[in-house]
Amino acid sequence: MATLFAEQDQERLYQRLRAVTAGDLTSDKIARLVEGDLSVVDELPSTARHGVAALLKPGAARGVGGLEKLVGPALDIVPVAYLDLARMAADAVGRIVDDGRTAVGTGTMVSSRLLLTNHHVTPDPEAAAKQIAQFGYELRLDGVPKVPCEFRLDPVAFFWTSPVDELDATLVAIGTKASGESEIGAFGMSSLTAAQDKHAEGDFVTIIQHPDGDYKQVALRENRVIGRGKSGATLHYQGDTLPGSSGSPVFNDQFELVALHHAGGCRNETHLENGTAISEDSNEGIRISRIVAALRDQLDRLPDMYRKLLAETLDPASSGPRMPGVESAASGAPGGAGVVVTGSADVSVPLRISFGATPTTAAAVAVAATPVATGLGTAVGGGTIERNQPPDQNYQNRRGYDASFLGIDVPMPALSKAQAKQAAVPKGAGKKAGPALPYFHFSVVQNGERKMPFFTAVNIDGKRAKSINRETGEVEASEVWFCDPRIGDDAQLSQAIFQAQRPRLFDRGHLVRRLDPAWGSAETALRAADDTFHFTNCSLQISAFNQRAALWAGIENYVLDNAKAERKKVSVFSGPVFRTDDPEYRGVQVPMDFWKVLVRVDGGRLRATAFVAAQGDLVRKGLASLEAIESFGDLGRVSVFNTNVTTVAKQTGLDFGDLHQFDTRRTESVGGVELASLDDVEW
Hints:
The chain is an alpha+beta fold. The chain folds into 3 domains: 10-77, no CATH class; 83-342, Thrombin, subunit H (Beta Barrel), CATH 2.40.10.120; 405-468 and 481-680, Extracellular Endonuclease, subunit A (Extracellular Endonuclease, Chain A), CATH 3.40.570.10. It has 14 helices and 33 strands. Strands 21-22-23-27-30-31-32-33 form an 8-stranded antiparallel beta sheet, sandwiched between helices. Strands 10-9-13-14-15-12-11 form a 7-stranded antiparallel beta sheet. The protein has a 6-stranded antiparallel β-barrel with strand order 1-2-3-7-5-4. Strand 2 (103-109) and strand 3 form a beta hairpin. Helix 1 packs across helix 2 and helix 6 packs antiparallel against helix 7. The longest helix has 17 residues, at 550-566. The two termini are 39 Å apart.
């Protein structure tokens, strides 16, 4: 059991540490941190060290390098982005008044149409029909009150509630505007998620509220999580609240909703889950994860028109506050009779990544983030990465592919003895170190004789993914690639292979896409994206490949978009298929096929799906008749096959261990099925 951290639930502590370090530590190092080894925090940026320090017991960081400086008053230091997130979250919080304009509580928008508050604030449809939500009921910078926008509650459109002694929560639709200039979409929303990594004992919380019915206020920094109630339904924290604060949202430092404030002292619980009596000086909130579980229990029982409203609330695109003006297909008012749902359910409903559903578009997966600028690249609004920059020259800080990333050990493929002799081993690495070249969130095992990877291995964290701006006119020729100094230049491709092609036959093809490892803290995401521009991650890819391999690109987008939408993790192995009779171009043999194996966890079990794309038809015709390249008219097409791990292993000579046991296609069937569309894939 951890002794340095206030949180005694090791699994929750593990998840929270992974969240506050933004994916900058491998699973092994997080495990060491949970066990009390604080030395691993030295490689973290200051904001992540701050998050770790908040979870420590008082005095636990003494003598631990730079961490000690972050204990005590320094814990009041937060990134300036905190203010931006606070403003976004605050916009979605409103004061609830009755028909006599008497304040009865606070509520917050959790979708484009639904407002969350306490049951004891809005106990039934009759009460809701007489209530109004006032947004912008706050003071301006000069101390003058703003003119609020008022919206009637509409229990006919949607109403769900749970009694005070259970979840003390009400979810109700916003109806017509009563006064003001703005529409409800202008105030944004805060997302509901059941994620288990949003809080741990010692975390700071922020409460945005209308205390005593007054103008909107924020309880800051003296608020700490002291534990969860014995039943698991409540969260207890220090902080200042008053009557009228009922129904206020309780946020962590990332402004993810962690609780719905409902009482001072110990209203529903008298003891924490560790048996400690709860102080009357604390506050009690209902955990958002329990509210989400209860709502999910109701989802399939509702008529379709109401299910759409609730589904939007339960399947947000991000876990923090959403920017104003974000609309969805479910935001329109439903017609027909209303629905009233009462009661709660203590259930655990896991979110599942659905690879067989229609892929979510990148546009639907907006990342709420502040602009960040570093010397490594530029992250613009929406968490977007603009361009590649020279890679970080400190190669000692790369941690590479994490085999335990999915929670179930998935080691990288193993080379045969013959392949091991061809592998380019990093300079200065001992025999036990192996040939893997670690980068940020991915690794490469390089075939030094063929100058291209045997394979790449990347971890994709959909929850912390950033995006890349593809609207800036970026073209392949403008990308800058770099040799990896850890291996010889003669063991990797170089710009000389690609320059002065007239016409251009081959592009520098990413094996690990720039998008895939770009997650974690802003700094690490930028470094990871830049790392993909090493020539060790490059293959000779015929220029027509991108135009003709729509399915191949579709598979890559499909995986990342679903991972982001579901906030799930995926590991991907990929590489070329090397054959002795591959044709040669400028002294380098060109692979005819590329393969990819996607691994994820579904229902607690590993799932592996394999693909092969063949560019041989294009390469052979292109090399035989360079004139044809001018129009790409008669080169043929790229065939994409849904195959299995066994087939990939036979074609590449790599050993995937027991991964074939988790294949989504029957391993008895060696070969592959050519795909006409993504609907044909056996996910």
